[in-house]
Amino acid sequence: MHLLTVFAHPFANRYPSAIMDAFHEPFRREAHTIDVLDLHREEFDPRFSEADHAHFWGGPIPPGIAQMHARVEAADRLALVFPVYWWSMPALMKGWIERVFTGGWAYQYGEGVADRGRKPLDALLRNIPTTLIGIGGSKERTYDKYGYRDAMRTQIDVGIFAYCGVTDVESHLIFDVEGDGNGLQRGAGLETARAIGEAFVAPDRTVRHAKA
User: Fold this and answer.
1) Of 35, 41, 40, nearest to 1 (Cα)?
2) Number of CB atoms found within 10 A of residue 66's CB
């Protein structure tokens, strides 16, 4: 099995990285391969440029995007690990999706660009099992009180992944881990990440459906 993990945090030696490593432990133990797409370390440019806009309307694919497509296509499992910024993923990761989930590759209307706005959507991505692990500083009750968890699932699980054909999506949030004073929660968060990895790597894992 081959896992692609997309990671967005400016430091490689802080808590979000430890969460990613804990999540990877079951994969490494069973000798599965892991491709870590560290958006900061690889200096991915999240800006939707003139070249991206031109490609949106049928122009050539911008440099570097086809390579990103190939890394997604090579994966048997996909994971996104990120700190929660303003009740969503970081702008860097959102920009990766905006630039990489391109028309004609992730989705299409009718026969192509000319049918945009006239023909129904065709989702093009393979339904690769996907897990999202968000690392939050707020308490779980805050997410529940204001509906942030449901809002994130609607926006990301359904609005991005299911829109493009990836319906087997599971979302996880690790709560209340900001600062050294939350040591107990941080330790529990690492155990949660390992458990997520154990379940995600299992050949008999339960298939999810983002719209269910």
Assistant:
1) 35
2) 12
Kindly report whether the global pTM for this prediction surpasses the value 0.90: yes
- Strand bridging mode 121-123 / 107-109: antiparallel
Task: Work out the mean pLDDT of the chain and round it to a whole number.
Answer: 96
Tell me what the mean pLDDT of segment 66-90 comes to. 98
Output 23-26 pairs: Cβ under 8 A, ≥24 positions apart. Answer: 23/79, 23/81, 23/133, 23/193, 23/194, 23/196, 23/197, 23/200, 24/197, 25/194, 25/197, 26/194, 26/197, 26/198, 26/200, 26/201
Residue 89, classified by CB atoms within 10 Å of its CB into exposed (0-12), middle (13-18) or buried (19+), is: buried
Q: Which of 48, 24, 43 is nearest to 34 (CA)?
A: 24
pLDDT score of 2 more than 80: yes
* DSSP for 27-46, written as a single string: HHHTT-EEEEEETTTTT---
CA 147 to each of CA 108, 152, 174, 176, 203: distance values in angstroms, whole numbers, following the listed order: 31, 9, 16, 16, 32
